[in-house]
Specification:
Distance between the termini: 61 Å
Number of strands: 2
Radius of gyration: 35 Å
Structural class: mainly alpha
Strand order of the largest sheet: 1-2
Shape: globular
Length: about 950
């Protein structure tokens, strides 16, 4: 607390501000400090309010030991000065008897006699105050359920009584009723009772998150699998990282464990690692740890995997499971010793011993297995302990086979090089003394060459260039000049590929690279046909890339010439892989020159040859190219068939070697053209996961970003949020290694999804934080303008117009550097609407100020001859003037603004896409004129004329609201 409040008014304001904070240590510590401040004032009411705030912080911050102490002070103040407690304070006091009962129940060190004594105190106080006893019987039932004794009788005594003002909320009572039936083994009845809460009709601070966590397994047992998945995603988001809902988190972990989602369970456990040390409630901790143990028992086959656990040491799955079991057993034993029953040990054993309900269930758009998690965990092996393992074949044979397959371009060469890389790194590695194998330096060169190739495939051009150049030097040292020439040629091409100063500069770099490769080719003697063919392939590739970069017609013939040269040479020497490469380059050149039918014909010829003569591993890429050409020819069905065949054939080869990821991403695009978004989503996520597995992380995150946006567009809000939350937990994201703009895109999509999921507070916080970070993007003010504008709109929706104005001013300043006319105009119009709708006449001045800014934006756009892609900025602005003035009760001004909007729009024609906007403007003008200004006759004339026009145009949907309004005006006339 920066400055302690000096007056009671300042104290009350500080209490209100603290009440807006999330529960946790910050809120609790501030509440404690405010109690100390309140004690300095003579007035008792500020102290009472400060104590109430502190008790709430303890209760929802999972510190049950402290809550009763605070309540005791409140009760003493009430007994000494009952008159200072107004109706509201008195209601809160009696309400919180239940909080204390629950707090005492959660502490095994509190004797059972003390629990019963507190309940008697509650009953006596309620009777003395002439309050209904249903809340007391509710607490008596909860004690019976906790003990596991006489629950049926206690339930009837509570559930059969009418509710009072001090009864728990409807949602909480529904949960208790449902849990009673669940404990009796009646899943279906429990779910029927739960339905209003699960459907979102009844809610409170803890609900529906608490009910959802308990309902997940009953839903699975009764076959409602899709509902369980949906509620898991929504319910987990509501309770994660919340110490007072640790038990609910534990049940979500259990749900993951029993549905084949152990990998997701470990991910969620890591997200909630703070609960191990933040939860002070033994009852909540027992619930949480039991859920953790259920998960860890399912992961014991991967016992050495790291797991998030108690602070102070690094945990493995096996080690954490043992620690969790020990602590949870101790908690259960302490509760049972206090209660004189075995209820807690029995319930815990039943949970831990549950068997999986489903072997596999896709909970998110990113299903992962434990094998995926294990593969992502680096295994650190000290060099001193590294030894070469025996291979089925000798090292020399392995080297020769890897070189042979590499020369053929065979996909399996990559795995062989990886194996050799491991063997040769061993301390006891002994290189074969074999002239055919060559010296160790030659093997080192081969390994660098392979590493460079893989870097180039990931577009890491600078890395690839450096590795190729190093490999070339080693090849020279090894007496392999032809291999050195190839490596240098590859380095030249990689250097050109890395030029990012625009298309013209890159095309020039590729021209220079081609000339240098030609010179290198001519200078190098003793080339074998295989090596010469590879140099020809590099020459042809350089000119193909130049054509792709420049789009210049003059670059077409040179590209064809080089491809023909490669094809002729490879055919003469019967080098199958390079024949395929030449045909592929020719087909690509046809496509780049705009002759798609010729390109398709070329690929078909290639496919015929590949199916007859091979190499078979070229088929998936060739089918992928044909699909892209077919899509260019507007035949998505054919493209889909080609890609599906490509995927089928790709299954025979390593995914990275045949670019299976690209096949999936292309299929996603094709599926969108075919109107199959669900299928597209599956292929996008599959493409992303393959890229992630193969180290192409930027491509993976881009695909996941597209998948998140698509899922949001499809209305799958919780899927979108769960996917993005999973990505945010990736190591390179948490370490700040991911490209900041790509991360910003993911966060922006997440904020939009949170907003769509009606979590305005979280969405606003995310965008405000992102706007603050993007303010430092000096090279991209346009993006900052859009982010700040979007943040301003959410701040306005939250009612915080002061901060909204600050954000929009930032957006305007950035817009001045990089104009974003439509986005800024839309933001300002929306803020004006929000201001007027929330504050009416009092907000009109500020609303009109936002519209004045929007007017300047529209004027700037006209001066810049900017053409909008959506609504006209001027007509949209005029319409918003109408709406803002109507909200403020200025109906004459509103009608005048709407008349202006209609004049700007003009009457729609047969193919006019503005018909909907025009119809809405007419409707609004008719409403203002007929309903508020009570000029029914001209309003009806306006509406009838518009309906007639829209009907003639066949726009019956747009005409319907106008017809409805006209009928209402006639009925009320």
């Amino acid at each position: 607390m920066p400055t302690a409040p000096q007056t009671t008014d300042e104290l009350l304001q500080a209490l209100q501000e603290n009440d807006r904070r999330p529960y946790g240590r910050t809120r609790t510590v501030t509440a404690e400090e405010l109690v100390e401040v309140a004690e300095q004032f003579a007035e008792p009411v500020p102290l009472i309010r400060a104590l109430l705030e502190l008790q709430e912080a303890y209760t929802y911050g999972s510190e049950p030991r402290k809550s009763p102490v605070v309540f005791a002070r409140l009760l003493t103040l009430f007994d000494e000065q009952p008159d200072v407690f107004d109706e509201r304070l008195r209601h809160l006091l009696f309400w919180r008897f239940k909080w204390v009962a629950n707090a005492l129940l959660a502490l095994p060190e509190i004797p059972l006699a003390s629990l019963r004594q507190w309940q008697k105190e509650m009953r006596d106080r309620y009777e003395k105050a002439d309050l209904g006893l249903q809340p007391y019987y509710g607490q008596a039932y909860q004690l019976a359920a906790h003990l596991g004794e006489d629950t049926a009788l206690a339930y009837e005594l509570w559930a059969g009584r009418p509710r009072t003002r001090l009864s728990d909320c409807e949602a909480c009572e529904i949960c208790e009723r449902a849990l009673f039936h669940l404990a009796a083994g009646d899943d279906e009845r429990a779910l029927r009772v739960w339905e209003p809460v699960l459907a979102g009709k009844d809610s409170c601070q803890e609900e529906p998150a608490r009910s959802i966590s308990h309902a997940l397994l009953p839903l699975l047992r009764t076959g409602a699998v899709d509902r369980a998945v949906e509620l898991h995603l929504a319910g987990y988001r509501a309770c994660r990282r919340n110490p007072s809902m640790a038990g609910e988190v534990g049940r979500h972990l259990e749900f993951c464990a029993l549905t084949g989602n152990e990998a997701r369970g470990l991910e969620l456990l890591a997200e909630n690692r703070g609960l191990f040390d933040e939860v002070e409630s033994p009852r909540d901790m027992l619930d949480f740890l039991t859920g953790v143990e259920v998960l860890l028992r399912r992961v014991l086959g991967h016992g050495e995997l790291p797991a998030a656990g108690f602070a102070g040491r690094a945990w493995t799955v096996a080690g954490l499971r043992a620690e969790v079991a020990h602590r949870a057993d101790d908690f259960a034993a302490r509760f049972d010793a206090r209660n004189g029953t075995t209820a807690h040990a029995d319930r815990r054993a039943a949970r831990v011993e549950r068997t999986p309900l489903l072997d596999a269930l896709d909970l998110t758009l990113r299903p992962r297995s434990l094998d995926d998690v294990a593969a992502a965990v680096p295994v650190a092996v000290p060099p001193a302990r590294t030894t070469a393992t025996a291979a089925p074949e000798s090292v020399g044979e392995l080297i020769l086979r890897a070189r042979k397959l590499d020369g053929l371009g065979h996909p399996e060469s990559t795995a062989l090089w990886a194996r050799l890389r491991t063997l040769s790194a061993a301390r006891d590695y002994a290189h074969p003394d074999d002239p055919e194998v060559g010296p160790l330096v030659r093997l080192r060169a081969d390994l660098l060459d392979d590493e460079a190739s893989r870097a180039g495939d990931k577009d890491e051009f600078a890395v690839a260039q450096a590795l190729y150049e190093e490999a070339a030097g080693l090849y020279e040292d090894a007496g392999a000049p032809e291999r050195a020439a190839l490596a240098r040629a590859c380095a030249l091409l990689a250097a050109a590929g890395g030029v990012d100063d625009g298309a013209e500069a890159k095309a020039a770099a590729l021209t220079d690279a081609h000339a240098s490769i030609v010179a290198l080719h001519e200078e190098t003697s003793g080339l074998t046909p295989v090596h010469e063919a590879r140099l020809l392939r590099l020459r042809a590739t350089a000119l193909g890339l130049r054509l792709q970069t420049s789009g210049n017609e003059d670059d077409v013939e040179p590209a064809f010439a080089e491809a023909d040269l490669l094809l002729a040479f490879a055919t003469r020497h019967d080098i199958a892989g390079q024949i395929s490469g030449g045909l592929l380059l020719k087909a690509g050149t046809h496509a780049l020159s705009g002759d798609l039918p010729a390109a398709v014909a070329g690929v078909d010829d290639l496919l015929g040859r590949l199916k007859a003569q091979g190499p078979a591993w070229h088929l998936p890429r060739a089918l992928g190219l044909r699909a892209r050409l077919q899509l260019g020819l507007r035949d998505p069905e054919a493209a889909h068939a080609s890609l599906m065949e490509g995927l089928r054939l790709a299954a025979d080869w390593p995914a990275e070697a045949v670019d299976t990821s690209r096949l999936h991403s292309d299929l996603a695009e094709v599926c969108m053209h075919l109107g199959r978004p669900d299928e597209a989503l599956r292929h996008l996520t599959r493409s992303a996961e393959l890229d992630l597995r193969h180290g192409s992380r930027t491509e993976a995150f881009c695909s996941y970003s597209n998948a998140a946006q698509l899922s949001l567009d499809m209305g799958r809000v919780e899927d979108c949020i769960a996917l993005l939350d999973s990505l945010m937990a990736e190591p390179d994201v948490t370490a700040g290694e991911l490209d900041d703009r790509l991360l910003a895109q993911l966060r922006q999509t997440r904020a939009r999804a949170l907003h769509a999921g009606e979590d305005l507070k979280a969405a606003t916080a995310e965008l405000v934080a992102l706007a603050a970070e993007s303010a430092n993007w000096e090279d991209d003010p346009g993006s900052h303008a859009m982010i700040a504008a979007e943040a301003a709109v959410l701040l306005g929706e939250s009612g915080d117009f002061g901060r909204a104005r600050e954000a929009v001013n930032q957006a305007l300043a950035a817009h001045a550097l990089a104009p974003r006319y439509e986005q800024l105009s839309s933001c300002l119009r929306e803020l004006a609407r929000q201001q007027a709708q929330q504050h009416g006449e009092e907000g009109l001045t500020d609303a009109l100020a936002f519209l004045a800014d929007a007017g300047r934006i529209a004027e700037e756009a006209r001066e810049a001859a900017y053409e909008t892609r959506g609504r006209s900025l001027d007509s949209a602005l005029a319409y918003e003037h109408g709406r803002v003035n109507a909200c403020a009760g200025e109906y004459e001004d509103a009608l005048a603004a709407l008349e202006k909007a209609l004049a700007l729009l003009g009457e729609p024609g047969p193919e006019d896409d503005r018909a909907g906007e025009w119809a809405e403007c007419v409707r609004f003008a008719g409403a203002v004129e007929g309903l508020y200004l009570e000029r029914v006759s001209p309003a009806l004339t306006r509406l009838d004329k518009a309906v007639s026009l829209l009907t003639r145009l066949g726009r019956t949907e747009e005409a319907e609201p106008l017809t409805t309004l006209a009928s209402r005006l006639r009925d009320e006339a």
